[in-house]
Structures are given as C-alpha cells and as structure tokens.
Amino acid sequence: MKHASTLLVAAAVVTACAPGDAEHGQGARTGSGQGVERLRVQVEQELPHDETAFTQGLEFSGDTLYEGTGRNGQSKLTAGPAGGPPERSVSLPEEFFGEGITVTDSGVWQLTWTSGVAIERDPDTLAERRRVSYDGEGWGLCDQDDRLVMSDGSATLTFRDPGTFEPQGSIDVTEAGQPVENLNELECVGGDVYANVWQTEDIVRIDPGSGRVTARIDASGLLDEGEVTSPEAVLNGIAAYPGSDRFLITGKLWPKMFRVAFVPAD
C-alpha cells in the first residue's frame, strides 16, 4: 500500500463493506460450499475522483464518504459526498504517512504507515482527539462489530479493541493452504473482511474466524491504459454502500471511482 513500486500495474479496483451489514456479506455468495468463489466486478456507475489523492482508506458512514490519503507532507482525511468535493478536510503532520481508516460508532481511526501511531478523530469535525501507539506497520483498517481488524502488509490480520486500540489476537490468511501476503486496504461487511491485495487487481473475501479466503474478485480493466499515470496508481480503496450489496472502489492517483456489484466470474 505504500512504497513506490517498480512494477507498473494496470490499475484496477476493489471494494469492501461497511460494518454490520449482513446483506453485503451474503449477497456475493453463489453457493460454492467450501471452495473459493471466483467473482468479478460489474460497473454500474463512474464517479469523479481526485487524481492527486494517494488513496489509503475509503469508507461510508451514511451518505458521507471518508477518504484517507498518504505520502509524507500530503496525507489527509476528507469527508463529503461520493464524487463531489470534500466538505471537511484535515492534514496530517508532515512526519506522518497516512494509511487506512475506519469509522466506528464514536469516531474515526486513521493509521500511519511506519510511525506506529493511530489517530482517533471526531467524525463530524475531523479534529484529532488522541494518539495511540502500536507495533509494526499500519496498512488497512475496518470496524467489525465489537472489534477493529487491521492489516500490516503481511498475511496476518490483527484484531484490536475499538476503544483502546489494544491487540486482541490475530489470524493468518490462507488460500488453498498458502498464505496470502500483501493484504492492504480492508472493509468489514457482516462477518466477512474484504481486502485489496497490493499490486494486484484482486480483492479477496476472508472469513476472519478461520482466516480462509472464501472468494477472489477480479477487478481488472477499470481504467484505460492512458489513465494510469504512475507505477503507484494501483487499486486501493473499498467502501460498501450502506443498506445495499454495492461497493465503491478506486485506486491511488485514479481519476475515477466506480460503483460496482460483485457477480460470478462466468
């Protein structure tokens, strides 16, 4: 989710979901039992996106879209309507490289990449409330009922207390018995966790109880070749539309966002 990449990835998009929406968690399933479902994105709408935004986190709360961006000296948290200019914006101190975000019942948490600092903010004003420390890198974050789920770029997801940010355990993510590395931006939907796989055009759906990948979603081909302006312009950003089974997905430095459905790949 982070460093400049030497690999030019044709931009693609993913999505994930808002906490506590059971419809999202079930809507993508097609009854494949214990196998890994193969899904793809079906675009329903294109929306404009700030092509200078180095997107690290994306999440809806009601009609408000929160977006966290990265890069030292450029990291921000914004809030406003999807596809429109932000109504509120706050910059991080220059020493922080902003990462994933999530909205809880009482606030907004924003990670930093290598500083080991999570910032809690007021959801209305975006004003900083406090900072807490954690070990390791921060990549993605989502809110799942009474816990937060956090990624660090490895195949491990860490569960955290939403009030104290203290770790409450972890799970290793596997597909066909093999670890799934580079788990990046996250979205919690019902009992599932959706994750961007960094530098790929795939999103995976994870059972956080077992760590097993239950679906792999192909989000390729969303941007034309001429719209990919940088090796760092990779898929990143998944937000579930509340009350539906649709997702909003985008990428770092992308000029567009996409409202999509996840449908069977065949």
Automatic annotation (TrEMBL):
Q: Which UniProt keywords apply?
A: Transferase
Q: Which domain of life is it from?
A: Bacteria
Alphabetized Pfam families for the sequence: Glu_cyclase_2 (PF05096)
Recorded GO molecular functions are:
glutaminyl-peptide cyclotransferase activity
Q: Positions of the region Disordered? A: 54-89
Q: Which residues cross the membrane?
A: none
PROSITE patterns associated with the record: PROKAR_LIPOPROTEIN
Q: What is the name of the protein in this document? A: Glutamine cyclotransferase
